[in-house]
Amino acid sequence: MKNTALVIMAAGIGSRFGGGIKQLEPVGPNGEIIMDYSIHDALEAGFNKVVFIIRRDLEQDFKRIIGSRIEKITDVSYAYQEIDMLPEGYTVPEGRKKPWGTGQAVLSVKGIVNEPFVVINADDYYGKEAFFHIHDYMVQQMNTEEAVYDMCMAGFILSNTLSENGAVTRGVCQLGKNDILQSVTETFDIEKKGNGIFANDENGNPVLVSLDQHVSMNMWGLPPAFLEELENGFPRFLDNAKGDLKAEYLLPRVIDSLIQEGKAQVKVLKTQDKWFGVTYQEDKAAVVAAIRRLIDQGVYREKLF
User: Fold this and answer.
1) Residue-wise over 259-278: b if at least 16 C-beta within 10 A, else e?
2) What backbone torsions phi and psi does residue 98 show, to the nearest 5 degrees?
3) What is the model's pTM?
4) Which of 71, 135, 182, 191 could form a Cys-Cys staple with 174, CB 3.0–4.6 A?
5) For 52-79, how does the pLDDT look when each residue is reduced to its tens digit (9 = 90+)?
């Protein structure tokens, strides 16, 4: 059996959720959190290792609420993302408040993950289909020996990933022949208003998006050698980010750069599953209701584990 790992990014501060630890909010009937459902689906699909990326100040709460339970059913490891986890010779700029983004988060698993792995956000529900597609691709097709990185990505329909309670950020994708990713662009303030869909680029300028476009939800299937690419690129990012206290080393931007340089090929694995998550405090009630419907439909057991 080919080993595959589930890497969960759970170090986010959750400022839009009102300052709480949104990743640890119960949404299931027995106190389950969104991560429980993602882990359940990943293990069902065939993944056999879970790596949690957390902050050290969350460690005790995290292990009490979920880590200690999951350790009983699969191999579990922890990685830590902190603002001062920087390459030698670099220091945190005065005034910097947050860690350095999803690229730095995933880099933290270097030395822990040595197998193909899927990356997800802790506070997003992805559905079962994408986990099966990515696991099947990893064990049946992914070539980890090629010079060009062989990757895959769950491709969600934009209309299936919107929040009714505010704007969201998504990686808007352009697909080529055979569903090979041509580009992924971080797109901000995406929101449905009336009959229209509105969005902005990183500078706040309006951009065109359509409800049927494919988007990234940061669910990437990656070869272990990609971690070396993240490590090599981090100092370059820090050099370019001088003076920008909010600059983030973002996974989609790293991957898009590799695509444009001809150093990566990403297969988009389309899914019709509907996303839900707790971006905003008001989202929680909708997530609880959605989980209840899935249980009533027989997708999940009342008591998950």
Assistant:
1) beeeebbbbbbebebebbbb
2) -120, 160
3) 0.93
4) 182
5) 999 998 888 889 889 999 999 999 999 9
Query: pLDDT tens across 196-239, in order?
Result: 899 999 899 999 999 999 999 999 999 999 999 999 999 999 99
Q: How many CB atoms sit inside 10 A of residue 47's CB?
A: 24
Residue that has been written with the tokens 């208003």 in this structure = 193
Buried b (16+ CB within 10 A) or exposed e, 243-258: eeeebbbbbbbbbbeb
CA-CA-CA-CA dihedral for 35, 282, 172, 51, to nearest 10: -20
Which of these, 98, 41, 36, lies nearest to 65 by C-alpha position? 36
